[in-house]
Amino acid sequence: MSRIDERFAACRAAGRPAFVAYLTAGDPSLARTLGACFELERGGADVIELGVPFSDPIADGPVIQRASERALLRGTTLAKVLELVREARAGGLAVPVVLFSYLNPLLSFGLDALPAAARAAGCDGALVTDLPGEEGAGWIAACRAVDLDTVFLAAPTSSPARLVSIAAQSRGFVYAVSRTGVTGEQVALSDDAGPLVARLHAAGPTPVALGFGIATPEQVAEAGAVADGVVVGSALVRFLEEHPEGDLAERVRWLRSGIDQKP
To answer: Tens digits of per-residue pLDDT, 102-156?
Structure first.
């Protein structure tokens, strides 16, 4: 079992969903991201997704777009993100880390070389936003060779056959996109979310983490009632944008309060 598998299994045994926290690496600085990883872990993040900044993040809303722009202006690169993960591991970070990127930065780094480099740095998985599994046979093979989990996106518009394929190609977890559109906080969980998770559970045994638009403890609880994991991204990125030195550990505890409350 991978470190991600073990964490999802532990959460399942504890009777709760995994809490997956996303940050854009390098915003407001790489040093702040390094500290933020430890804060997320202290707050109770079960998995950390580190976003590699990209100039054209077409799947992301304005909050993460701005974060990517700031990180790029500070010179953040994929190589520097991997070095950040290496430094975090050396400092004792134990939580699983998923590299979250668009395809272009990986191509620039060297797609064949990236899986081994990511594993050597301490990454446990990778999600390539704009690489569908049908076109990623080489990528999947290279990741399998070094035990780097491949996380793929599933949308409410995906056909039943495609969901089966996504579930089979994914390792660690499947990222279920709760609604069509781009990332960003929403006032309510989409009506598409629950049915999509149910379809993915029927498609295969891979755990399903639900994300896109989840921003409050109530939404975390609602998503966690149907999914194996809950992904919070824009809400944490915006928190750092507004409070660069704010306490992310406390923010995660607040977001998790819905799933941590005992009956």
So the answer is: 999 999 999 999 999 999 999 999 999 999 888 999 999 999 999 999 999 998 8
Domain residues for 52? 3-258
Instruction: Identify whether 240 is part of a domain.
Output: yes
Enclosing H/E stretch for 128: strand 125-128
Active-site residue, selected from the candidate residues 5, 27, 60, 241: 60
The counts of H helices and E strands in the chain are 12, 9
Angle at which helices 160-169 and 193-203 cross, to 10°: 60
Residue 19 forms beta bridges with which residues?
230
* pTM confidence score: 0.93
Strand partners, 184: none
Closest CA to 46 of 219, 138, 173, 146: 173
CATH number of the domain at 102, please: 3.20.20.70
Domain tally, the chain: 1
263, part of any domain: no
Instruction: Measure the CA–CA gap between 91 and 125, rounded to whole angstroms.
Output: 20
The single-letter DSSP state of residue 147 is T
Catalytic residue among 49, 124, 149, 185: 49
For residue 18, give Cα distances in angstroms to 146, 153, 202.
24, 17, 20
Let me know if 49 is a catalytic residue: yes
Task: Provide the 10 A C-beta neighbour count for residue 155.
Answer: 18
3-state helix, strand, coil split of the chain in percent (to 5) is: 50, 15, 35
